[in-house]
Every structure is written in C-alpha cells, then in structure tokens.
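Bench log, entry 3. Co-assembly request; chain sequences pasted below exactly as received.
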Amino acid sequence: MGPAGKTHEELRREIEDLRARLQEAEETLRAIRSGEVDALVVSGPQGEQVYTLKGADHTYRVLIEEMKEGAATLTVDGTILYANSRLAEMLRTPLEKVIGSSVHRFVEQPHQQMGQALLQQGKQGAAKGELTLRAEDGAQVPVLASVSPLRMQGAPVLCMVVTDLTEQKRYEEIVAAERLARSILDQAAQAIVVCDETGRIIRASHTARQLCGQNPMLQPFDAVFPLQVAAQPERAVGGPFSLVDVLRGERLRDIEVCLTLRDGQVRSLLLSAGPLLGAQGEVLGCVVTLTDITERRRAERELERQARELARSNAELEQFAYIASHDLQEPLRTVGSFVELLARRYRGKLDEDADDFIEFIVDGAARMQRLIENLLAYSRVTTKGREFQPADCTAALGQAVVNLQLAIQQSGAVVTNDDLPTVMADEAQLVQLFQNLVDNAIKFRREEPPRVHVSAEQGEGEWVFRVRDNGIGIDPGFFHRIFQMLQRWHGRGDYPGAGIGLALCKKIAERHGGRIWVESKLGKGSTFSFAIPFEGAGRNG
Amino acid sequence: MGERMSEPPEVLLVEDNPADIRLTLEALKECRFEHNIRVVRDGLEATSFLFRRGRYVGAPRPSVILLDLNLPKKNGHEVLREVKGDENLKRIPVVVLTISRLHEDILRSYNLHANSYIIKPVRVERLVVVMKSIGEFWFDVTTLPPE
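Structure output for the full assembly:
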C-alpha cells in the first residue's frame, strides 16, 4: 500500500497521467515559443479554461522568429520579457538566459548611456540609435537598435528591434578602403603598379597607365615596363630589370632604371618595390613604384656640365693670368733696365724734354712691374697655394709687421694686437693677408700717425678677425668696389699702390672658405674684417 | 795677386738673352775692375768653350763662370754637372746668375756644387752692386786655385 492509501496500480496510473501532462505542457511551451499556438486550453478545478495569447497571431510569431533582426519586448527599465532566437544568436547567449536579463547587460560600456537614453526616448515614441552590443563571449556586435512603445494592457512595455551591422560595417570598410586605394592610384604623381604573384599587373595608377601608353592590366610587368637598370657606382651591373627577386619578397629602394618609350624617348626612373602581403604574411604579389626623374637628371647633368665648364674656364683663366704675367715680365725687365741705364748715364746730358721722357718711361715701367708682380701674386693664390696646416695668427701678423718695418718706421705707425688664435690655413697667405690689410691701414692715413689694432673673436663656426685703423676711412658707396681687382678710389699721385692688395685679400679669404668685408665712415677710420672657418673648409692646395 | 795684375782675370758669361748680356756687360763696365769677359749664348757653346772643342780649341781657361740657368740646347744645370764632374774644370768657381727664385732651382744648383747662387736684381743700380761684389769677392778677397 502506498501513501494516502492508494494502490500500486493507482499510483502507476497517476504517474503516467502526470508524465503525459508534463509532456503536454512542454509541447505547449515549445509551440508558444515557435508561434504554432495562439491559444491554450487548460484543465483546472473550475473546468477547462481557454487562455488566448494576446497579439500572438501565428503568422507574426513565425515572422518574428524568421526575421533577420533580433527582436525583444522589454519592461521600461530594460528587463527582457521576450526575445527571438535571432537576438539570442547575436548575443551568443542561450535564449533562456536572455529572457529575464536586463538589456543593459548586453550593451558595451561606452554605449551604456546611449542605451539608457534610447529606452527613455522609446517610451515616448519610436527611437533609433547605433550602438555596440557585447556578446556573452566578449565579441562586439555593432547594431542599429529601434525602440518603440507597445500599447498593452497593464504595465507599459517596449518593443526593440536590433539589426546586426557587422556585415554592413565590414562592407563599408571595404568600400572605404577601395575608395582610398582608387584615390591614391588616380592621384599619385608616381606610377604605382600592383602585380600578382606571377608578376601580372592587377592594378595600375593613372600615371603608370600614361607612362606605358597601353592598357597594362593582366599583362606581365616586365613586358609592359621593359626597364634597364642604369649602371651605377654602387650597383655595377646594368642590364634588364626583372621582378623575380621582388616576387620572392625582396624589397628594392630607389633603383635607377631607364624605360624606352614606344616613341623612342628614354625616361629615367627611380624604382622602389616590395611584396604585397596577405593576412598571414604570405606573398600575394608586389607593389612597384616608379618616379620619373628624367627632368631632374637632365637638370643635374646640365648643372654638372656647367660646373665643370666653369671650373675649366676658371683654371684656364688662372693659368692664363699666371703665364701672361710671367712672360710679360721678361720684356718689361729689359725696358725697365735699359731706361734705368739711360737715366743713369744720360740724365742732364740731353735736353730737358729727354729727361722728362725718360722719367715717364722709368715710372711707367716700374708701375707695370709692380702690377705684374701683383697679378702673379693674385694668380698664385690658387695656382701655387700650399696645403692648410695649423697656423698661429699671432706669428703670421708678427711676420707681416716685420715685412712692413720700413713703412711702419716711416709713418710712425703703431700696430697692436690681441691674442690671436691658431687656424687651419696656408701660413704664407695668412701673412700676406695681414700684411696687405696693415699696409693699407698705414697707406691711407690721416695727418696723425696711423694706429692699427688687430683682434679676433669666435663667430659661428669661424674666427672673425678685425683690422681697425684711424685712417681716412672709405665712402660706403665704394665698399663693393674696393675688393675688386685694379679698382682705385684715389688719384694715382695721392696714394701708392697698384689696386690689387684688397682683391688679393679677398681671394685668400675665399680660398680658405671665408669672406672679407669692411665697415667704415669717411674720416673716421676703417675696420676690415675677414672670417676663416675653424676647420679650413676652403680649397686646400 | 801681384802676378795676376799683369794679366786681367778671364770671366765667362753664359747667357742667351742679348739684352741681359748687354746689361751685364754695362754693369761690369761701371764696376771698373780689370777683367776679360767672353760670352757664349747657349749651354752647348759653354761646354765646347770649356772643353776647348771645335772652334774653341785655343780658348782661355776662365777664372770665374757666370752661368744663367735657362739656356737653349743645354740648360745651366747640365753645364754645371759637366763642369763639376770634370777633374780639371771642377775647381773653377761657378756663379749661377738667374731670375729664378724657385727653391728647387737653388737647391739643385748647390747640389751640383755651384759656388754661389745670385738672383738677378731688377734694378740696374742693384745689378751694378752685385757685379762689383762678384768682382771684389772672387778677384780681390778670394785666392783662386793656381792654374
């Protein structure tokens, strides 16, 4: 006997019955979910009762289950009352767990506020917003969520439809990437060519198409662009260019190549190339960039040619000046010597005119002699210059002063100096430079005895020397002329000199990579300055 | 010195430029010292004279040689080498008289045993002084080797 005094047979029937009802109930639940049922008949103590599922018309239920969007009904605070299996799928969460959860649980952190706002708006009327959901496994799902109020009896309910935008986003990205690629290919000044792994051209920029003058698509790169590698110092081998190495993954940077166009024109190009890699780093092909440098090369060659021509004509001119002045010396010596002899023997023995004439010849010959010597000295600055070595400027100035001893004594000049540095220079030329500047200062003096002071200070990467005097000064209008050869600004009789001293100074300063300039006021003395770089940047030798 | 008084010293001038020859002669003239000067116009003539070849068979032996460096046919250094390489001639003082200031010319001359190196002055006045000095030094101050 069992409990409640039922027989074993009664109990067994009761179990059978309960089992059948359970199965019926599960069947019913499944049918409700899948929308197969829209009303239920439930047997109870009050007899059988019909429960109609409100609004759950079979067709719509099926539609909701079948549609691509996720759908749910929510309480106003976001608790999910009902969800279709598509939403559960999107969230990668079992449907049982979705129903009853708060929808906010599935909204990505940065979009939480937006989610809240969407529900608030949804209470008033239809609202839409893009946000990112977070699936159970952490995956992000970009979605468009539409929320609208559902008119139902009792508590207000919201209806939410969620569209998965993952595919759309991906597609948009692809479209954007393609648009970018196309823009680059259309607008790049360089010819850009993309090849597949066999070396066939699969993309070509506008410039590339123009360059090859044909439709290059699906043709072998090496055939469309028959490039010749230019022989370069670092790459001795010239010969035809081939993509083979690039397709093996090699990267090339700025290789100079030549392309002979159909019309016979030859273009100089800089080629860079590298592999086109797939997602797994596999070589899918390669990207080749060609930059047309024909004009640049032409300009460079022209510039080089001009530089060579200039150097040649300069050297020729210097050589000419040297030879001319050297060879001029001999006949001039003869003239000078014999007129001097003439003066020695016959001055006062002929008539007065003869004496005058002799005087003019003596003077002319002597001047020409000095001129030629100076011209020779000028051309020797570069043709016979010595190598730069550390040169003590105090010693160089000292030597210059010794050389000028006679002029210094005769004029009563006082030459003073600060401590001067050691520079990389041709010492003999340095002496000459100081000598000419001090000599100038003494020559162009006022009544009072000349005072000359030499100083030096560090400039930017160079030493700046100054030779200051208390002489007659120079009109600023002549500043630019005084360093030119054979420019005199005083009458011949007033001040001696052949007008070459400062030109020589300029040439010496320039040979040392430096420069020379003057600051002066008429009647207030002059300061000649010259700069010599620390490292002797000029032409050595 | 007494014996030489009767016979003035022989000077050989080796110089190709007629103007320079004349100038040297004029300068020597102003020095007023007794001498016989003979002039040859190139290096080959100079060695023929000194070795008494050809038409110079009877040439006198000079007491001093004034030698220019820049000469046709045989330059001054070659003449110097031959003279100083000859047992008999090497005792004759050779004064190099040139316009060259080049260090290598100066060194080369002394290396070939030149007795003196003089850079020709530009001014006649100085040339006269130089000639006078040569005369005084070689024919008055110096005792030359006996012949």
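The first helix of chain B runs from residue 2 to 6. The domain at 10-139 of chain B is CATH 3.40.50.2300 (Rossmann fold).
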